[in-house]
Amino acid sequence: MLPFLLLCSLPLQASEHIRLGIQLEPPTLDPTVTAAASAGEITWCNLFEGLTLVDGEGLLRPRLARKWHLSEDGLTYTFELHKGVTFHDGSRFDAHVAAFSLNRLLDENSGNPQQQWFEQVDSVTAQSDEHLIITLKRPDAVLPFALSLPAAVMVHPDTVANNSEHPIGTGPFRFGRWEKGHSVTLKRNMDYWGKPPYLHQAQFLFMQTTVGTENILAEGLVDGLLSVTRVGNRFMIRPDYRMSARKLQSKMILAINNARPPFNDLRVRRALSHAIDRNRVSKLYGAQFEPELIGTHFPPSHPAYVDLVDRYPFDRLLARQLLSAAEVPEGQTLTLTIPPTDYGRYGGLMIADDLEAVGFRVKLEQVDWTTWMERVFRQKDYELTLIMHVEPMDLNIYARDDYYFNYDNAAFKTIWERVLNARTEDELHRLLGEAQRRITEDAVNVYLFMRPEQNLMHRDLEGMWEKSPIPSFVLEDIRWKDQKR
Amino acid sequence: MIHRRVGLGLTAKTLGMTLLILALIIGVTAIMSRAFERLHDQVDTLTSTEMENLMTSVRLVQQAESLNSLGFGLSVANNHTERRQALINLTDRTLWVNQLTDRLAQQGGNPDLINQVRETQAQLQSNIAELNELVSQRIDTGRQAGLERQIRALSHNNRELAGQLAILMGYFSATMRQQMVMQSEQLAAEINVQQRNLIALALLLLVFALLAGVYFEVVVVRRILQMQRNVSAPVVDVDAFDTHGGDEISSLAKTVRSYVQRIQYQEARMREAHQELTFLAEHDVLTGLANRRHFQAAARRLLRQSYQPLCVAIGDIDHFKKVNDRFGHATGDQVLIEVSRQLSEGLRESDILARFGGEEFAIILTTGSLEAGYQVLDKLRSLIAEKPFLSSQKHEIHLSMSFGVALVDATVLQSETDDQLTESLLDAALHAADKALYDAKRQGRNMVALAPKTVYAQAI
Predict the structure, then answer these.
(1) Domain for residue A5, yes or no?
(2) A401, B44, B135, B316: most buried, per Cβ within 10 A?
(3) Is the pTM of this model over 0.80?
(4) Beta-carbon separation of B99 and A211 below 8 A
(5) What is the CATH number of the domain that holds A64?
(6) β-strands A17-22, A201-206: how paired?
């Protein structure tokens, strides 16, 4: 009996592991301090949990909160929290911890990437162990959604300082180890307060190179890739992989440092928009993907979307005219900084060709992700960069004072102020349209296309949260279809 | 009722033996699972670390080789698009090569070798950067002899470096392969040892199980079979039950023995009762003499077997009714008993005497002639008449008895002659004797009268 049980238990374990390829290695595993979406992608709802979440069906639901209640004047939210929730180190989660987490987020120097979602919050206080009160300066119906974002997850004051390297949350998985340059391993949290997950272990492997991705896929060393890649398609002929759809809103843009000459000149920025052949660049993942082109920083699926694709048609002559009007000399050197991703490498080549075709000399600068986050995002030390913005509904970044675009536009800020105060949905949509037109008119960045949201996944994996708009890979429902594997 | 104190023996032994076997099985299982765990770990290391190392180094060999052609692609680029394309591919590949090398270093590859590889890689990378610069210059300024020479030299150097890298990696993968072969040999040896251990343990278990089986055969099965044989013998010998020892089987044997003893006792009682019943069926209760039924059966047998004529007589106590009337029935019964005794004592063993009812007796004398029969009976008659009977109430009672006797000749009868014929012959003889008795009564009683004619079997 005993050896029989032992024999039975061995093959079962192997099937409860999963290995996932992810392109960018986050500079930190704490999603509350970095704009790198990969931190949230690994940790959100796996390691860290928020008061609310957007589930696999795309619905907003309570998570660490049991329910919430909005006062009649629309200015006070009361969140009732789950009892008996503990962090991975055994410390207790309660309203005081929640208040700490949110006040930390609200701190001016927190560096929280999603802080702008909480601009209406006036105060966060714990009324009791189970009741959290959030008061607002103005009514804000999207606060419960904002609380579901990876940057609004709950952290404990005792362990928050180490969350970058050794994150401790309340989620169904706890931190295993981080092999820098290689992988992050999460292990099942045996003391999880909610429904236990199926998997025992999940390993996120960083696919930093195209050839490496190809190697690893060929050898079957990963069970899925967490974003579309150039080489992924080729593996579709294998019977063990399939494409799995996602519902993200990833906008590919050629970001411009608006403060740096000659790009502080609107004509130069507009020339860039005319110079890029979006159609060609959009095929960088392969001809069978037909990504939707965009003319602004907004997803076409949203009802407030304004189609501005044809505002700057691909026209090299016009681009050259604009450049000469701005007195940009022929052969002006510019540096295109590209992150270590497929789109960076291959999209970067296409963009460089297009820019050289209108008279620039392009220096292609490949940087690793940490360098990109530090130099481009934080220090704003760049000229052009090709980048994917994966956060949902992030038009508000253009209203930020110190964002890496260096846009700082008073007109847009005024529009955004009105967006925040919109009283009806119609008004909101109209104002969002106005905001989209504003940034397109200012040609802040070159808006390229929406990334095709297809993951390459093993055919036997199920339980992916395909309809969640949060850039994440939630493991709690993932399992192998048949346990024979 | 089982006496627990005594009966614990076998239960305790069985329990002990079961526990011992169980402990043995658990022990074997634990030892084996430990061994399997160790093997599992070894296989795990082999498949994860070692295998991955091997795969990594093989991948590195491939990548190092492909760097060669990519480097060539860069050196011959005619425009910036081609140049950048080649550079991107080269950078992607060198980055991957660096990552793989880091992986090898992390998993404990030879540090000197790793360092050598890293140096070569660094050199290669700076060469590529330089080459990129030169090619870029060439594209911008057109072909110049000096530049071309530099590019050719760098390109050649690159090929050399990529070649070196490939060789180093080849050496790496060869070492890895050797290590894996060694590990798998070790694993095979370990598996062998475990296999032998498993067989030895299984044999031990088998021997133990066999011993347990033999023990039970001797201690339990054989004794139960012996008991069964004892019980099923035609005559159960109670001393054959083995009641030594204090276990359940001894206690069972004791129970069975006591049960058999009870049965045997009951059987004896029943036999006695049966004998008594048989006696009662064939004898007169008062006097203990044979009754008419027994008399007839005995007479038939005698008639069929006799080789000489026999005397059949009927005797009757004279005036017995008066004795009853005068002294009571109890005294009458005493008289009958006394007369019976006297008659019995006066006859031979081979003769038959029966009380026919009331004060009447029937006698068969195995005397060959009527005269001899007369003498026996007359002697009895005078004996009874001479000595008065003293009753328990001290009454002196004078008795006399009359006899009628007939000679019957049954010598022609065969032993297998049927009962009816013999019966008829006996009836005829009794009838003749009865007539003679009647004569004796009529002639004044207290005498023996003879039947005038012999009764012959042939006449019936």
Answers:
(1) no
(2) B135
(3) no
(4) no
(5) 3.90.76.10
(6) parallel
A153, B403, B447 from B374: Cα distances, Å: 143, 9, 10
Q: Three-state SS for A464?
A: coil
CA nearest to A221, candidates A20, A54, A81, A370? A20
Q: Above 0.90 for ipTM, yes or no?
A: no
Q: Which residue, A72, A178, A79, is CA-closest to A131?
A: A79
Tens place of pLDDT for every residue, chain A, 485 residues?
Answer: 444 444 444 444 456 899 999 988 999 999 999 888 899 999 999 999 999 998 888 889 999 999 999 999 989 999 999 999 999 999 999 999 999 999 999 998 888 888 888 988 999 999 999 999 999 998 888 899 999 999 999 999 999 999 999 999 999 999 999 998 889 999 999 999 999 999 999 999 998 888 888 888 888 888 988 887 777 777 778 888 888 888 888 999 999 999 999 999 999 999 999 999 999 999 988 888 889 999 999 999 889 999 999 999 999 999 999 999 999 999 999 999 999 888 999 999 999 999 999 999 999 999 988 899 999 999 999 999 999 998 888 898 999 888 999 999 999 999 998 998 888 889 999 999 999 999 999 999 999 999 888 888 888 898 888 888 888 899 999 999 875 44
Q: Which amino acid is at A332?
A: Q
Give the minimum alpha-carbon distance from A12 to chain B in angstroms, rounded to a whole number: 14
Examine the domain organization and report whether A384 and A463 are in the same domain.
no
SS3 percent helix, strand, coil of chain B, rounded to 5, is 75, 10, 15
Looking up residue A233, the CATH number of its domain turns out to be 3.40.190.10
**Residue where a domain terminates, one of A134, A162, A190:** A162
Residues A186 and A154 in one domain: no
In this structure, what DSSP letter does residue B200 have? H
Q: Given B40, B96, B103, which is nearest A211 (Cβ)?
A: B96
Q: Which two tokens stand for residue B457?
A: 């079997």
Does one domain contain both A284 and A342?
A: yes
With H, G, I as helix, E, B as strand and everything else as coil, classify residue B445.
Answer: coil
Q: Which of B175, B160, B170, B156 is nearest to B63 (CA)?
A: B170
Is residue A7 situated within a structural domain? Answer: no
Q: Chain B contact for A371, CB < 8 A?
A: no
* B 53-72 near A (Cβ less than 8 A): 55, 59, 63
User: Do residues A54 and A95 share a domain?
Assistant: yes
- Interface with B, mutate which of A19, A205, A208, A209 (most B CBs under 10 A): A209
Same domain, A150 and A70: yes
Starting at the edge strand that comes first in sequence, how are the strands of the sheet with A76-81 ordered?
A: A65-70, A76-81, A131-136, A121-126
Alpha helix ranges (H) inside B283-355: 292-305, 320-327, 329-346
For A200-230, letters b (16+ CB in 10 Å) and e give: bbbbbbbbbbbbbbbbbbeeeebbbbbbbbb
| CATH code of A422's domain | 3.10.105.10
Provide the domain count of chain A: 3
Taking a C-beta distance cutoff of 8 angstroms, is the pair B405, B455 a contact?
A: no
Do A388 and A470 have their domain in common? no
C-alpha to C-alpha distance for A251 and A447, rounded to whole angstroms: 8
In a domain, A12, yes or no: no
Q: How far apart are CA A51 and CA A121, in angstroms?
A: 15
- Chain A partners within 8 Å of B63 (Cβ): 211
Same-domain pairing of A391 and A409: yes
* Structural domains of chain B ordered from first start: 4-213 (1.20.120.230), 284-459 (3.30.70.270)
Asked whether residue A101 is domain-assigned, the answer is yes
**Chain A residues whose beta carbon lies within 8 Å of the beta carbon of residue B205:** none
Q: Before A262, cis peptide (omega within 30)?
A: yes
State how far the Cα of A334 lies from the Cα of A343, in Å rounded to an integer. 19
Domain extent at residue A57: 27-162
Residue at token pair 């199920």: A462
